[in-house]
Amino acid sequence: MRLATGLSAVLIALATTGSAYASSCTEQIATIERRLDSAGAERVTGKEPPGGPTSSGSDKALAQPPGGKPTDPSTTASVSGIKEARELIAKAKTQDKAGDVKGCEDTMTKAKEQAGALP
Q1: Which domain, by its residues, includes 41?
Q2: Which of 14, 26, 36, 95 lies at a CB distance of 3.0 to 4.6 Å from 104, suitable for a disulfide?
């Protein structure tokens, strides 16, 4: 009986810990990192991301980026904007690990603005 109680406590602790790491900010970080490691970001920066460009693997993803330009020119991606976004993501990861969800989300908002609309 004691073994079952102890095992239950361990499983509950693991389930609780796992959900703490899967915050909405963690998901935002992963999403923006995929964008910054995409073929579109490579076209902006001229550099292939470490490990090669990624793909979402989604059956809803476009085979090619849409043509045209963003309606708001301030959302155009730039090399410096992508670099700043990567630095902000590093900061957001630290905030997320520290449990600062609000700070992490605020930092991710800035990171998205800096990344701009990638092709």
Answers
A1: 21-54+70-119
A2: 95
Q: How far apart are the first and last CA of the chain?
A: 59
Give the model confidence (pLDDT) of 66-92 as tens digits. 666 666 666 788 888 889 999 999 999
Q: Can you count the helices (H) and strands (E) in the chain?
A: 5, 0
Contact 59, 100 (CB under 8 A): no
Specify the number of domains making up the chain. 1
| pLDDT score for 45 | 78
Long-range contacts of range 59-66, CB-CB < 8 Å, 24 or more positions apart? 65/40, 65/118, 65/119
